[in-house]
Amino acid sequence: MDFQLTEDQRDLRAGVRELLAGRYGREALRESVDAAAALGAGVVDRGLWRELGEAGFFALRLPEGGPDGGVGLGLAEAALVFEEAGRVLLPGPLVATHLAAGVVPGAAQGTAVVTAFDLDGPFVAYLGEADAVLGGEDPAGELAQGPDPAAGCVPVRSVDPLTPLYRTRGPGSAGAPSAALRDEGALLTAALQVGSALRTCELAVRYAKEREQFGQPIGAFQSVKHLCAQMLVRGEVARTAVYAAAVTVDPGEIAGAKLLADEAAVRNARDCLQVHGGMGFTWEADVHLHLKRAWVRAEQWRTAAEAEELLARELGALSA
Q1: Going by DSSP bridges, is the β-strand pair 154-156/212-213 parallel, antiparallel, or unpaired?
Q2: Cα torsion 29, 34, 38, 40: sign
Q3: Taking a C-beta distance cutoff of 8 angstroms, is the pair 114, 96 a contact?
Q4: Antiparallel, parallel or unpaired: β 154-156 and 165-167
Q5: CA–CA separation, 199 vs 194, rounded Å?
Q6: CA spacing 20 to 30 A to 44: which of 3, 114, 246, 320?
Q7: What is the DSSP letter of 116?
């Protein structure tokens, strides 16, 4: 069995990386952070959102030749694309809008911004900027759409400056996406985490090569080598789990992938900060942005506690 990416998949990943590098590089990221600080809330760049839609980011898994301009690819390809988005910390409800493509008018084209209510938690991201919400008052639990989806919700301070949060009327009161959507959402969120984990590993290695102490790069010291090696292992293990779950679409494997990806994103960001030393604690460094986004994503679509419970039930069923 061949576990390598196909040439088309490699080309897809390279194309998305090139698009994001040109459209949302480090300068654009810092401009977004500054704008969020000035306005007191995260801002979804509608122009970029439409560009993503035109590139097929949201319609990637819709049937080719359909009315929404689908690309006709699968969940495995979507994981590759979301991994690249995680590398650059692309803000916005990417997962929900992708899942809403073909359901919410304009989602596939990037002309609509769609967010999603959590299953039990009282918070929802980007609610003030959303045109529609997955998992709302609709009895089917898939869609609530209205002129003011933020009605009755209160904005709260978020640890991540580019992920504005709103408190809903109460835990579970707003409904939730279906189990199938939650599995797909958890997997794509895990892919975002993997991209961030591997990016912080790259940042740590680059800094370890450039920063000198006692007449040599700090990367020559064994303690720094160990940190960077552990970061690489975490990221690659998590990426393997995400790729496998994207192929099998097994709920248990998705839960395991989310656990590994969350751990890799958070711990790699912490270790990257450690490698940077005092510089990592400054606002000018990007390390803290990866850590804050990883904390937020770890609580989205499927938390560690939920994933552990799901895996425990599956293991219990096997041993029964």
Answers
A1: unpaired
A2: positive
A3: yes
A4: antiparallel
A5: 8
A6: 246
A7: E
* Size (the chain), residues: 320
Q: Which two tokens stand for residue 274?
A: 């450690």
Bin 290: left if φ > 0, else alpha if -120 < ψ < 50, else beta: alpha
Give dist(CA 20, CA 42) in Å, integer.
Answer: 19
What pairing do the DSSP bridges indicate for beta strands 212-213 and 216-217? antiparallel
Alpha-carbon distance 7 to 106, whole Å?
31
| pLDDT, tens digit only, all 320 positions of the chain | 667 899 999 999 999 999 999 999 999 999 999 888 877 656 789 999 999 999 999 999 999 887 888 899 999 999 999 999 999 999 999 999 999 999 999 999 999 999 987 655 678 899 888 999 887 544 344 554 444 555 667 888 889 999 999 887 644 444 556 788 889 999 999 999 999 999 999 999 999 998 878 888 888 888 999 999 999 999 999 999 999 999 999 999 999 999 999 999 999 999 999 999 888 878 888 899 999 999 999 999 988 999 999 999 988 888 77
Q: What is the model's pTM?
A: 0.91
Number of neighbouring beta carbons within 10 Å of residue 140: 9
Token pair, residue 176, equals: 């939730």
Q: How far apart are CA 5 and CA 11, in angstroms?
A: 10
The C-alpha atoms of residue 41 and residue 317 are separated, in whole angstroms, by 45
Q: How far is CA 152 from CA 23, 115, 136, 148, 166, in A?
A: 35, 16, 13, 9, 10
User: What's the CA gap between 145 and 276, in Å, rounded?
Assistant: 45
Q: Is 288 exposed, middle or buried (0-12, 13-18, 19+ CB in 10 A)?
A: buried
Collapsed DSSP state (helix, strand, coil) of residue 123: strand
Of 226, 18, 28, 39, give the one whose Cα is nearest residue 129: 39
SS3 209: helix
Q: Supply 219's token pair.
A: 């990367």
CA distance 155 to 163: 11
Distance of alpha carbon 170 from alpha carbon 257, whole angstroms: 29
